[in-house]
Amino acid sequence: MSQDLKQLDNRTVAVELAVNGRSKVCRGRAWFEDDPDLGPVLGVKVADPAGDFEFLIEAATWSGQIFPDASGWADYRLCLASECSCLN
Hints:
Layout: H1 2-6, E1 12-19, E2 22-35, E3 39-46, E4 53-58, E5 66-68, E6 76-79
Parallel strand pairs: 1-6
Antiparallel strand pairs: 1-2, 2-3, 3-4, 5-6
């Protein structure tokens, strides 16, 4: 599955997840690298007014799907919740 995530390197990515039962979308710039502890990972750096943060997704455990982002806010969208708008 790392090949799938690798295609997102240096692209804008929307990450959709559930926070307190509500859908939240965070957008950022992705990078793909080999982490010495985790192996191949996709990172997404998100700039947020409350403070910047990063998502790290281990390629070895990734079983989700990658979608083109229909909103136009990003190149691709990753869904990390069971009920995502990209799955409808």
